[in-house]
Amino acid sequence: MRQTLFTLFVDRFMGRGAAAVTVPPLDGALKPNNDLEDLFNGIAAKAPDCIVDWQGVPIWSEGARLVSQSGVQTEFGSDITAIATSDCMIAVATLNEGLLLLDDHLAQITPNWSVPVKNVTALTFTAQNELWYCTGSETRAPDNWRRDFLEMNQLGHVGHANLATGHVRVIKSKLGYPAGLAPMPNGSIIFSEAWSSHLVEISPDGRTSRVVLDEIPGYPGRISPAQDSGYWLSIFAPRNPLIEFVLREPAYRKAMMREVAPEFWVAPNYFSGRLFNEPMQGGALKQMGILKPWAPTLSYGMVVRLDANCHPVRSFHSRAGGTRHGVTSTVEADGKLWMACRGGNEILSVDLGAEGIPA
Amino acid sequence: MKNPVIALHNVTKEFHGNPAVKNVSFELYSGEIHALLGENGAGKSTLTKMIAGVHEPTKGEVRYQDKTVNFSSPQDALENGIAMVFQETSLIPSLTVAQNLELGNEKFLSRLRGLYISAQQFLQSLSFEVDPTVQVSQLGAAQKQMVEIARAVRHNAKVIVFDEPTATLTPEEKYHFFKLVNRLKKEGVSIIFISHALEEALEISDRITILRDGEHVITDEVTAFDRNLIIQKMVGRNLTTELYGDEVRQARKARPAGKRVLSAQNLSMGSLVRNTSFSIFKGQVTGVFGLIGSGRTETFKIISGVVKRDVFHGGEVRLEGRPVRYRIPRPAILDGIVYVTEDRKVEGFFETKSIAENIYSGLIGADLNESAAISYAEMAALAKIWTERLNVKAIDNDSKMIELSGGNQQKVVLAKALVQRPKLIILDEPTRGVDVGAIAEIHAVINELADAGLPVVMISSYLPEILNLSDRILVSRLGRMVEEFSIADATEEKIMYAAVH
């Protein structure tokens, strides 16, 4: 049915359609487990964000630094927001410097971009001279994503940069915080639209697009290809009815953003439960000292294995009360799946079984 | 040793030759609270209905106060001091609460004001917050239950049978109810308490009897039981038939889930379906288990447009990503959602029409008939295909439905659904009242459908059926899907535990 002001009003009144405070269920392949929580201790890292495979070993970003297991590789002027690697190049997006290109000795080879590229949330190389990027929001930088979320912006875009010429082209715009992308075997690009909780496939020219996975019970972030076929999807925060409800109350939302410090907002986050004066605590979460199984949570850890058709087949969870929340990025390297757990300040890894899926 | 108030000696009750209760002996002492537990269809209600004069035992003897009795009706039993509070309330909806309380004792001429005053005093003495002047049709389920209980108390019954009294009560009402039950006990009233809530049984009763498949399993003091033992006794089946054998189950691997076809989010309907959320995937049999009153049937009736969800904030149903809301079943059928009812006699077929006409009616309902006018040739051809495929046994396809056995009727109902070329098929109790041979054939059809890539939902109260057919099991409790199992980690005990907690 076509959305008109009248149908919007009726939906709001009846509590249906866009006004239904509903959240997709975590069932089927997404059935909750404690598999993230049960992993062995990982490598301590301070808010790791993006993890990629660089010459066979994982490297990740910690604030403005690029780090691997052997130590700090290089440092930039401001926080890194996305990384991508090819055989001989590494692309890094930062908060202030924009999109940078480094060669295999980590020396800058950034071309002159035809348009400045900023607020990048994800990057991926397709061919030797092709780089795709996601701009989460044209107005809010990636470190301010929670404000972008509460403003319910649809100001992101997916673009394409030619590395030889420096020519940058926006392929699809007016997106709700695209936060991850990966090339598909058929030449198309798959990207996640976090605020719409779905994955979209677009053709390289951007003319055709279709939703390949919708009703994700969280906010999907970066996507990394799995070695055999399929993808790993990081879901960096959960959807819950409380947040959906806050989104339905504009006056409350605006007052909250105006008057309350960001760490106390009722909004998804990479971590929760660290501050004693958070909005949800005590009796809302615990009963007789034990966390209620249904305790609402603003943060969650979830990594989903998708098959080649983008259907979920397996998932790893860290549930309410867990610590390994806010997994923002994954990569397969060295026979293992590596995960950057931003909320848990840890790089986690798990051995991949024979079928490319951990037991 | 005290003399029992009620004693049943080797009682058997058969319905059309099928025993619902087999050779059960049962004793109830005065001033005792006796909990009667068992799965759906274990024979609890039938047993108590024999005590309360609803059914007559086929074999055996019912003794009340040391005399063999044979009550002709519940009224007869009530006059003798045995009251039963039914699962389905037996109040008259168009009369007020006070009139209902007086029912059976009414004078030739009644003065309403006096009636209301005495009813008000009486209800207050029980701490029941019910307005005696309100019509019963205006009351909620819990309040109806309270009126029903009050009526039993008012008749000064010596024995009161409560059939799942607490299912519809809120915790506070439950508290009042338990206080009332304890007070009645002190006054020397004997109480039979049927419940699915095991904690309640453990908390309130003096003795517990467990029935299974119509047979007596165990009777003992409440101290001899704990929750796990009760569950084990309730489900621990020792019939290992070909159908439900363990070997069959262990050899089976779940079919992998396909694309998500249906997703229900926060679906609500009154107090029966409460904020339920779940998904259904292609190429799988999704088994839905729940006790009676857990809202499983209602949930799927909402999806197929038989009943409507709450108008305000009733949640969402998405069929292949598209939000749908059906007010009547026909658009749902046209979209490929087919619901096969659990109550086939009432909702499933036209009983005086023939097999062929019934199957053809399904085709017409889905707009799939080839000729604009009714074509007898098409009808006969269709009936031939489907009666052969499902092995419907009848003299010919012009036999009336009413002449068929339950199993054959169910096969025709299934055929009527399958001709509609479903994209999602919901089978509600597909083998209820069906003989063993037909069960095997219906199960084979269900497996065929899932193997062909269709999403199949099978609602069943019979645990072995759920375990042997489904690839994924959802458990419903109090109007909500509370647990999901894959076939690899499901056991009868785990499912039952999820369904009662």
- Rounded to an integer in angstroms, the radius of gyration calculated over CA atoms of chain A is 20 Å
Strand composition percent of chain A: 35-45%
Widest sheet of chain A: strand order?
1-25-24-23
Mean pLDDT of chain B: 84
Please state the structural category of chain B: alpha/beta
Largest sheet of chain A: 4 strands, antiparallel
Shape of chain B: globular
| Span of the ends, CA to CA of chain B | 36 Å
Largest sheet of chain B: 6 strands, mixed
Mean pLDDT of chain A: 90
- Amount of helix of chain A: under 10%
| Overall strand count of chain A | 25
Quaternary structure annotation? heterodimer
Q: Please provide the ordered H/E string of secondary-structure elements of chain A.
A: HEEEEEEEEEEHEEEEEEEEHHEEEEEEE
CATH class of the largest domain in chain B: Alpha Beta
* Major sheet strand order of chain B: 6-7-8-3-9-10
CATH superfamily of the largest domain in chain B: P-loop containing nucleotide triphosphate hydrolases
Question: Could you walk me through the main structural features you see in this protein, from its secondary elements to its overall organization?
Answer:
The complex is a heterodimer of chains A (359) and B (501). Chain A is mainly beta. Chain A is 9% helix and 40% strand. Chain A has four helices and 25 strands. Chain A has helices at residues 5-14, 145-150, 241-247, 250-259; strands at residues 43-44, 48-54, 57-62, 65-68, 71-75, 80-85, 89-94, 98-103, 120-125, 130-135, 156-162, 168-175, 178-183, 189-193, 198-202, 209-213, 218-225, 231-238, 286-287, 290-291, 301-306, 312-318, 327-333, 336-341, 346-351. Chain A has a four-stranded antiparallel beta sheet, with no helix packed on it. A four-stranded antiparallel beta sheet of chain A has the order 2-3-4-5, with no helix packed on it. In chain A, strands 9-10-11-12 form a four-stranded antiparallel beta sheet, with no helix packed on it. The longest helix of chain A is centred in the first third of the chain and has 10 residues, at 5-14. The model of chain A has no long low-confidence stretch (mean pLDDT 90). With 501 residues, chain B is α/β, with parallel strands linked by helices. Chain B folds into three domains: 6-238, P-loop containing nucleotide triphosphate hydrolases (Rossmann fold), CATH 3.40.50; 242-336 and 422-501, Rossmann fold; 348-419, no CATH class. Chain B is 35% helix and 25% strand. Chain B has 18 helices and 20 strands. Chain B has helices at 44-51, 74-79, 97-102, 112-125, 141-154, 171-186, 198-204, 227-235, 246-250, 296-303, 329-334, 344-348, 355-365, 376-389, 406-418, 436-451, 463-469, 492-500, and strands at 4-15, 18-29, 33-37, 59-64, 67-69, 82-85, 159-163, 190-194, 207-212, 215-221, 260-269, 273-281, 285-290, 316-319, 322-324, 337-340, 424-428, 456-460, 472-477, 480-486. In chain B, the strands form four sheets. Chain B has a six-stranded mixed beta sheet, with helices on both faces. In chain B, strands 16-17-18-13-19-20 form a six-stranded mixed beta sheet, with helices on both faces. In chain B, strands 2-1-4-5 form a four-stranded antiparallel beta sheet, with helices on one face. In chain B, strand 19 (472-477) and strand 20 (480-486) form a beta hairpin. In chain B, helix 13 runs parallel beside helix 15 (406-418). Chain B starts with a strand and ends with a helix. The interface between A and B is medium-sized, with 21 and 28 residues.
